Amino acid sequence: MRKVAFLFLTAVFTASGFYLGHYLFVNNLLNLNLETNTGYGLAALTALFGLVLGILLTPRLINWTVFLTTRVVEYLQKMPVQDLLIGALGLILGLLIANLLGSILNFLGVVGKAAGVLLTVFLGYVGLIVAIRKREELTGVFTSLPWFGKEKPSKGEAKLLDTSAIIDGRIADLCTSGFLEGTLVIPSFVLEELQHIADSNDLLKRNRGRRGLDILNMVRRKSDIRVQIYENVKGLEDTPEVDAKLVKLAKRLGAKIITNDFNLNKVAELHGVKVLNINELANALKPVVLPGEEMTVQIIKDGKEPGQGVGYLDDGTMIVVDSGKRFIGQTITVIVTSVLQTTAGRMIFAKPKTFRREEYVNGKFNEVNVVG
Question: Rounded distance, CA 223 to CA 342, Å?
């Protein structure tokens, strides 16, 4: 291709040189009163000059064209399809307006034609840039039209994954269970944060980050849910915090956020973004505990209030036992007094079960007759 382009451009330069010499001779622009044979000699001389100029400039033109084409192709490959379509629409509108205005300037002759060319280039560029920068608003206008429809079926809903939900690991089980539908969208900045955690010097953080990457690979391989890495984060570069970027991107895409972060949950609700909190789902699926029920729990440590003891169920639910500090290290039966349910989790308040005097006597003291 380079050889063909070299030969073609060199021939173009040579022909242009010959035409230039012939034009100068025919119109006598040099005022030399040349004869016919001398005119052909002038045309041959300018053709030779064009040939030399073509041999010297053609390689540079080819290299410049290849470089420019490569850069344009790389830029277009990185640009999302949505931006390409919106940009093309803006370019078409700009060229149409320039064509209408250019037809008006035709009465000015050569000056009008030159102004029309400049106006075409200018308005085409302006239409392209403005359309790309206003893509969110233009997309909102199209989606608000009745024949486009803003509501999408549940299978098409996008759900943004937060770093905490990925590291937690339960998202993999949720995907394989079939209860979660739609497309899981992982923004590039979330993936970068996960990679930074995996490369941390802290052993605990490094293990958490690697676990998150393993969870993502597991979801992509073993579940039927589509996982998409979203790289179009233009306009979010000035926002330093990942949570703020996630909320803005969710508003842009009209997506929901899957997270375990309590603070992100509250911030997203303030911005009108729907949140799927895995902790809320887990709490909703836990067996209901009613006041008055008996439970068996091991007291592990003392609580914040004086005399309190704290234990945990197998699912991690905290149980605060009044007057349970003296039972630390023991497994006792408690009676539930109240249950506190929050988005951050569930907390059960209880008290030790009171034994009747007969139970102590029959259950303990009769085994060994101490009194006699």
Answer: 30
Structure tokens at 128: 């392209």
Please choose, from the candidates 229, 277, 233, 239, the residue with its C-alpha nearest in 3D space to the C-alpha of residue 257.
277
pLDDT at residue 63, rounded to an integer: 86
Q: Which residues of the chain have pLDDT under 70?
A: 25-26, 28-40, 78-80, 82, 135-156, 235, 237, 287, 315, 342-345, 355-372
pTM above 0.70, yes or no: no
Q: How far apart are CA 340 and CA 349, in angstroms?
A: 8
Q: What tokens were used for 28?
A: 């006598």
Sign (positive or negative) of CA dihedral 101, 107, 108, 114: positive
Q: State the Cα torsion 86-90-93-97 to the nearest 10°.
A: 170
Measured at the alpha carbon of residue 196, what is the angle toward residues 190 and 199, in degrees to the nearest 5?
Answer: 145
Write the burial class of residue 260 (CB in 10 Å: 0-12 exposed, 13-18 middle, 19+ buried): buried
